[in-house]
From TrEMBL:
UniProt signal peptide: none
Gene3D superfamilies per UniProt: P-loop containing nucleotide triphosphate hydrolases (3.40.50.300)
GO molecular function, one term: ATP binding
Protein name: ATP-binding protein
Lineage: Bacteria, Pseudomonadati, Pseudomonadota, Alphaproteobacteria, Hyphomicrobiales
Domain (AAA+ ATPase): residue spans on this chain: 24-285
Residue segments, region Disordered: 477-498
Domain of life: Bacteria
InterPro entries found in the cross-reference section: AAA+_ATPase, ATPase_Atu1862_pred, HerA-like, HerA_central, P-loop_NTPase
Keywords: ATP-binding, Nucleotide-binding
Ranges annotated as biased composition (Basic and acidic residues): 487-498
């Protein structure tokens, strides 16, 4: 069904229409400096498309909650646990309810975690509930930053992974991302690159104007026009908007934001008792806290008497209110989930953030008891699992290999442990293709650089026998691999193909 959304006016009074069905398949990116009219544009799009498609708005400032009174959106307060937000998102998709996730009042890291949990719940919904949803993310640079900021690395990766899933893999699940940002330079490139429709508003920095012009297929001389755009004026391009750059003016909206641009108002006349008004506390204000006097010194005899008293008997340990978690059952469940992930032939080429989201979903499906592993613990367990040896077993050489791997970056631990396992078991040296798969790449040259990196760190020695086969020796483990040809095919990928 073809539905055209009226976004306002184009050149010469023509209507600026947006093909909603095409938008659901190709996604939209909006850029504009603060005050350029991005929120007004998003509100116009949401109001015009509300009768036709389910909507989900990730609202960091609480500006879009006013849609609830006019269009029936449900406001979800984000001041909840991440697990609760994930379950709510699943029910939102099941019952096809338009919602506004209100993140107002949370700090930046809490907003990132809440948005990641909610988007993850929508992304992981059951296949029967993959109905079309317009997912609008305002201030997208907060949730998909191009560089690390003051928030923790774990929160940034969770949020970035959720945004990447929305823009890269969400289309097949019915999720159509509409993201708005103040600056393209602040937005992660892999998130921005998935949009096929663009609405570029006023911007002043040369780097942002150049990127906007490049996305719209304009030359650098035409990029200067982005400085002169008025509030609410944008240049549109994309299969859902126009095949050529088209200046448009966004139309009026029915609802308004709770916050607005500041307006100048005249100052009141200065009162004569201004000093009393400022420094005298009002009747409803609490009285100032009085500084406490220091306690009187205790005599030495009393201190000695207190120290000589016998210690009271310890209180009996109270019975736990909740059932004690069986750690063996929990570890067995985690090991099972990790094996399922590793058996997927495409898992080696996915990022840790994506695999961690998959891990959490599988743990919920298998009802693994206890708190889920943190991202750092998951990376460590995944690296050991990929090596094929249990971290809690193995001989002295394997224990030494585990200790050496802790000093390496997270993405290199799995490769090092896989080579160490081959040396401990006297297996042939892994080929370049096998090393590349373990590192998550298809480049054999990059795999050889990994061996050079390990050799520079003094962890192993690479030598070649008289038949041109490679041997990897570990001085600290007092063992080495059997000879193996570096150009041999990856046996894991060959077995999967067969």
């Amino acid at each position: 069904m073809k539905v055209n959304i009226d976004m306002g006016a184009a050149a010469r009074g023509a209507a600026a229409e947006l093909d909603l069905e095409e938008l659901l398949a190709t996604r939209l990116l909006v850029q504009g400096n603060s005050g350029s009219g991005k929120s007004h544009l998003l509100r116009r799009l949401l109001e015009q498309s509300a009768p036709w498609v389910q909507q989900c708005i990730i609202d960091p400032e609480g500006d879009f909650v006013t849609l609830a009174d006019r269009f029936g959106h449900q406001v979800v307060d984000a001041a909840r646990t991440e697990a609760e937000l994930t379950r709510i998102a699943g029910r939102v998709r099941e019952h096809r309810v338009s919602v506004v996730l209100n993140l107002e009042g949370l700090d930046v890291e809490q907003q990132m975690r809440a948005a990641a949990a909610f988007l993850g719940g929508m992304f992981d919904a059951e296949r029967d509930h993959w109905y079309p949803v317009l997912v609008v993310v305002d201030e997208a640079q907060l949730f998909a930053p191009a560089v690390a900021g003051e928030v923790s690395d774990e929160a940034r990766k969770l949020s970035l992974g959720a945004m990447t899933n929305l823009m890269c893999r969400g289309r097949k699940r019915g999720l159509a991302g509409v993201i708005a940002t103040q600056r393209l330079a602040k937005l992660a490139k892999n998130v921005a690159a998935e949009a096929s429709n663009f609405l570029m508003g006023r911007t002043f920095l040369d780097i942002d104007m150049a990127r906007a012009a490049d996305l719209l297929g304009m030359d650098r001389r035409q990029a200067e026009q982005f400085r002169d755009l008025a509030r609410g004026h944008f240049v549109a391009l994309g299969p859902a908007l126009s095949r050529r750059p088209l200046p448009i003016t966004i139309g009026a909206v029915e609802t308004s934001a709770r916050s607005s641009s500041p307006k100048l108002t005249p100052l009141p006349e200065a009162p004569e008792d201004a000093s009393d008004l400022i420094f005298t506390p009002g009747p409803d204000e609490t009285s100032p806290i009085l500084r406490k006097q220091p306690p009187k010194p205790i005599p030495t005899a009393d201190l000695l008497a207190q120290l000589s008293r016998p210690k009271p008997a310890p209180e009996p340990v109270a019975e736990p209110v909740f059932a004690i978690i069986d750690e063996a059952e929990r570890e067995a469940g985690i090991d099972t989930v990790l094996r399922e992930i590793i058996e997927d032939p495409d898992a080696a080429f996915r990022s840790d953030a994506v695999l961690y989201q998959d891990f959490l979903v599988r743990c919920r499906i298998r009802r693994v008891p206890g708190e889920p592993l943190p991202l750092s613990g998951f990376r460590r367990r995944l690296a050991v699992a990929r090596a094929g040896v249990d971290e809690r077993s193995g001989g002295e050489a394997w224990t030494t290999a585990l200790s050496l791997s802790e000093a390496l970056p997270d993405d290199l631990q799995g490769v090092f442990l896989m080579i160490a396992r081959a040396a401990v078991n006297k297996d042939p040296s892994p080929s370049d293709a096998t090393l590349a798969r373990a590192y998550g790449t298809h480049s054999a040259r990059r795999a050889r650089r990994l061996l050079s990196y390990f050799e520079e760190r003094g962890l192993l020695v690479v030598r070649t026998d008289f038949h041109g086969r490679r041997v990897l020796a570990f001085p600290d483990l007092n063992c080495e691999t059997a000879p193996g040809h570096p150009d041999a095919p990856d046996e894991a990928q060959r077995d999967a193909a067969e």
